Each structure stands twice: as structure tokens, then as C-alpha cells.
Fold Probable nicotinate-nucleotide adenylyltransferase.
Amino acid sequence: MSSPRAPRIGVMGGTFDPIHHGHLVAASEVAQSLDLDEVVFVPTGQPWQKPDVSAAEHRYLMTVIATASNPRFTVSRVDVDRGGPTYTTDTLRDLRAQRPDAEFFFITGADAIAQIFTWRDHDELWRLAHFVAVSRPGHVLNIDDLPPEGVSQLEVPALAISSTDCRSRVHRGYPVWYLVPDGVVQYIAKHHLYRSMA
Ligand code: ATP
């Protein structure tokens, strides 16, 4: 009898301030292409060097609302509860400790993978997870300088949406309907997020 395969878990880390359809489409496409059993969204902790980022609890709750309808999507509090700046090596170590049986796939957009050499302990990342770099409008996807066994790339449906633009739209009184899930639009309004910004 063949032994059951290890669960395959995608990890979508982000500030999610707010979570938008670009994040959700990327996660869904990677889940489909790599036959993942689950994608866990991991909102970052409160970065002390970025005082204008919304409270971690708001970002966590918007992520829960946005992912609730997809049975393969879950949300983890590991980075929110650890607090302080988030380092992906810590995120992956914590998730691996919770699920030692699983194989992990860390999802990054083209902009994020281009910065990976600046991440703390970046040379350790490759043994903690396989990295999947996804296309993002306005950014060149290039993984040539990264270890080929550690990273693969995937074209995902192109949605030119960023959290920065969503925040700016709310601040200027423009709608974010259809850029973020309906429940997130309502959460932003209820909690008066992004009205006043530096
Ligand atoms: P901000 O504008 O505040 O910098 P963001 O829109 O880049 O935010 P993050 O929460 O920083 O969102 O992104 C989390 C991850 O999702 C990163 O790896 C990022 O590259 C990826 N990502 C964000 N938006 C998209 C998109 N539209 N298409 C593909 N990947 C995306």
C-alpha cells in the first residue's frame, strides 16, 4: 500500500492593509496549479518601523472576512501574536512546528521576490519552504539569481491592484468596491479605516 502524501500547504504572507483581490487570485491560482490542500494567509505583525500601518487586529480580521468563503483558505495569527517586525524565517519555523507532516510553499509576488536578498537570514529560506514567485502587473518577474531547486514561477491572472492604491482611494473618497471583497469594503467603512492618512 502506498503511504498517503504529505499535506501540501501554501503560505501567503502579507501586510494585507487591506487584503484585495490580487492577493486572493494569486493564492487561488497557486493552489490550483500546485495541487495545494490549503493556503494559509499570514498577516504580518505590527511593524515598529511603519507606524502608519493599520492595527494588526484590523488587518487580521479583514483577512478572515476575505478568505471565509473558500474552503481551502485559512488564516494564521502566528505573526500577529509574535508581534514586532515579521521575518519570514520565523513565520515558516512556527508554521512548520505546528504542521511537521506538511510540505510548505511560500507565495510571493514579483515585487517581493525581487527583494528577497534583503530579508533576514534569506539563505535559510530555501530549506524551510519551496518559494513560488507569481506575476504582478507593473513588476518584472525574474528568479534567475535564485536557487533553481528552491523557487519556481507562475503566471497568475493580472490584477493591477495594490493595498497602497486601495488606501489612497478610500482616503480620497473613491470606491474600492470590486477591488476588495464586499465584506472588506464594509469593514473599512465601519471602522473608518484610511480616512485620515499621513
Ligand atoms: P502595499 O501596496 O501596501 O505595499 P501590496 O498590495 O503589495 O501592499 P502586500 O500585503 O504587501 O500587498 O502583499 C503580500 C504579497 O502579495 C506580496 O508577495 C505581494 O507581492 C503579493 N501581491 C500583492 N498584490 C498582488 C497582485 N495584484 N498580484 C500578484 N501578487 C500580489
